[in-house]
Amino acid sequence: MEKPEQAPAKLPTEAFARLPFIELAEISPDGTHIAGLFAIGGVQQILIAPLNFDMDKIRNVGVPDGTQVSHIRWANDDNILVSVYGLAAVERDQWYLSRILSVNRSSGKLTKLLWDKAGQNSGDILWISSDGSSDILAAAQGSIYSSDATFWPTVYRLNVETGKKRVETRGIEYVMDWSADHTGKVRIGVGYNDRSQQSRMLYAQEGSRSFRTVERADMGEEENLNLPFLFVPGTDNGFVIKEDSRGKSVVIERNLLTEQDIRTVYEAPDDDIAGVVLSFDGSRLLGVRLSGREKDVDWLDPDLKKAQAYLDEAAPMAEVQIQSFSRDQSKMLVHIGSSDNPGLIYFFDAEGQILSRIAAVNQSIEGRRLAPTKFVQYEARDGLEIEGVLTLPRGRAAKNLPLVVMPHGGPWGHDSLTYDYWAQFLADRGYAVLQPNFRGSTGYGDDFVNKGQGQLGFAMQDDITDGVKWAASQGIADPARVCIVGASYGGYAAMWDLIKDPDLYRCAISISGVSALRREVNDFGGSLRENLYTDQWKKMTPDFNAVSPLYAVDRIKAPLLLIHGMKDVTVDHKQSVLMQKAMVKAGKPSEFVSLENADHYFTREPDRLLLLQSMEAFLAKHNPAD
Q: 20 to 30 A Cα–Cα from 154, which one of 39, 93, 309, 371?
């Protein structure tokens, strides 16, 4: 075994807790400006700047109080669209409501589009004019109450500079989602009906304003609806993503009226298709986003393919992502980073092949190589191959290390070789970190996802345990020094593994975790798609209470740390409150850190810092790295 390099000095916790300096970056259609969410002094601001960052021409707007930015997009060369969401009190409850804002790059003027009141679905941008005008299409609710006719989103044509609007397509009962073609015509509606337990796809032919139902699917099986992301002009054809008869993820050209597949446009190699990249006007498929390890986007456009090849050659040891490009695709924003460094944002002039640095994503870590990561594979007890991400502390031999196993949230998600500030923080403190993509995870095909059905608390949990045993069998982990840490569903998994395998762990940390599954499912009450969400969870386990940590605390032996934000509306803060009360009542060792202003995703820098500090102190107490 090679002698490890000398362990580097530990970074301050604040370095890992810093918000990314730049997020959601987008280059203007004319390739002269950048817009994004910039963290300045630990506070996020919406900023528009020329690429030379001339201070006299920078326009910045504070993020409205109580809201968070989910998306930034250029409407034309002079205006950006900002989708925001925030918590609002609704009849003794807290709901996330959304809306759209526009900001002018010349004046910095902020315009609230549609109306002052936001809705649960009031920030859905369907189409942006490609001719340089200020028109867009957006769908929005006019009420949050399903008894009101305006609850069902109406599509409006908006002027982003004046805010003037007119109705393009009136809401239809049960239709919550709309999409438009590249000319700005509304073509698709998707309806969900809890009473009939069915979903349906409505379609309008080119030039028509009349919608007809062309496909139906049982609730919970919306993936069987062939929703087009691109319409072929002059036909009833559209491009859809689906799985073929061999289980391959493909893009198909399909006749939306006859429901007949016409041809295969693209076949993914061995990965799931995670999304697509379209031209600025939405008329051409430029690339396909993949969920696999080899590449982020498989470019179909020859110019973008050529640019990617040049950039990959320029930075062979890094992951290069073309994040945004100008209307003519000659100017780009590029992220160059790796799983062991948050990376930098560059401007790339493809014609001159000139790469110019804009900013480091995290200035406290800039240029420093952190802990190495790699994919690992191991066999679950029933023979299923499980893949995970292993992060090893730099400067320590990969032998008998203290281990933190960190299952992802969802559970419909997966971990990959991208920068993860939690994993890197823990590795910096001396821990090996294993992130298993247990059965039920996405990224490995529908069959792998479906293997999680009925296995929540059972085989899904065994896959995590088997990862720990694999790491110990390889000599990487010290089996006597293992803790489990997770957030959201991962928080549930951390608590349940503490119960299911009580002798395996020295401690556990649940962050925003679910302790009572039945209570979590009941929280969907009042949701438009209540039955859909409930059915999704019922498919995962036959008996909620039988696999809920709240009702099995007597089996816990190791200390448990609960961390939860009081502004979390994804997993109710009470889930941790109840678990802490049960632990105390049962005389079990536990700690509870309740963060007054934290949401589910810890989007505030002070909350990120307190989270990491709490994790570090608890692990040092119960499973010290040294």
A: 93
Q: Residue 383: which pLDDT band, with cuts at 50, 70 and 90? A: very high
Residue 56 falls within a domain, yes or no?
Answer: yes
Which residues constitute the domain of residue 590? Answer: 373-622
- Quick check: is 583 in a domain? yes
Domains contained in the chain, number: 2
CB 204 within 8 A of CB 186: yes
CA 624 vs. chain centroid, Å, equals 32
Q: Determine how many CB atoms are found less than 10 A away from the CB of residue 208.
A: 11
Spatial CA neighbour of 579 closest among 605, 553, 601, 559: 553
Q: Is the full-model pTM beyond 0.85? A: yes
**Residue 446 counted as domain residue:** yes
CB contact at 8 A, 532 and 598: no
Separation of alpha carbons 474 and 370, rounded Å:
23
Query: If we measure between CA atoms, which residue out of 478, 399, 384 comes closest to residue 436?
Result: 384
Report the CATH number at residue 33. 2.140.10.30
Q: How many CB atoms lie within 10 A of CB 525?
A: 9
Query: 304: closest CA among 319, 316, 321?
Result: 321
Q: Is residue 502 a part of any domain in this protein?
A: yes
CB 433 within 8 A of CB 352: no
In angstroms, the first-to-last Cα distance of the chain is 21
Q: What is the pLDDT of residues 503-557, one digit of tens each?
A: 999 999 999 999 998 765 544 444 455 455 556 666 667 778 889 999 999 999 9
Question: Of 126, 153, 171, which residue constitutes the final position of a domain?
Answer: 171
Burial (0-12, 13-18, 19+ Cβ within 10 Å), 31:
buried
